[in-house]
Amino acid sequence: ASEQVLRALRALQQPLPATHRPQMSSFLGDVVFWPTEVSGRAFVAGMVAMAVVKVLLERALFPLARKSMPPAAFAGGRIDPNLSFFTIHFLVNMVVCYLAVPDTLWVLAHPVEWRASENLGHALVMAVHIFHVLFYYDSLTTMDYVHHGVSVGLVGSMGYLFLWGAGLHAMDFFICGLPGGLDYGMLALVKMGALRKITNKRVNKWLNIAVRWPGILLVCYIMVVTKLNMGDSAPVGWLPIWLVLFLHGGNGLYFAARVVTNTAEAEYALRMEKKAAKQ
């Protein structure tokens, strides 16, 4: 059965022939600003779609559901900006997952090979974070600035400077797409009063330690193995690979540890509340 699954995954698309792989140096690789017209259109379409959804949520859908939401969702006479953005982020991440799944499966089934990809999902990853800065700047935290500046501004831009191929989509799937999308969806439900905060924390803990961090680590490992296998014919050099290992790898480890610690603290506080209520 496992062999049949592997054959099915390999049949998704054949790897790029070796003769078509660009010849690059081992250290840096070819530095290009590669976004195509299709990628640019995806970015613009994503920004426009998010703006439309923002208006629909804040002017129509959320006001209609106001009676079923907690007062905090409309504190100060305005809709909680986090409720709006969490919902948008969830929707965008689901689209990123849809676009990235084929490349992600291919990378997992071909860990020592490289193939080209349009990486349209990466355009949406960049778009949603830029949208956050442009339209929700008054609610950004210090961690938001660090996250956007390093994980998106620096490493995200590197996605457009080097020819990562399908591996970029695989990284986007794990570091942002699936686990991030589910977490933002739950955060939106918490804001709506439809989900307990502790439930969100419990699920997010397992998303980080069982999906996000292992997935990031696996894709980092595949990048190294692919480079070792292809040598100078690999499209990306060692410098950008090591930067991604350090920055994205550190991102996965940091947030996994942070979520586990935060969940443990919330569980302890909940137990203390229950204990106090019984006395």
From TrEMBL:
Keywords: Membrane, Transmembrane, Transmembrane helix
Tagged with keyword Transmembrane helix: yes
Superkingdom of the organism of origin: Eukaryota
Segments traversing the membrane: 42-62, 83-101, 121-137, 149-167, 173-194, 206-224, 236-257
Entry protein name: TLC domain-containing protein
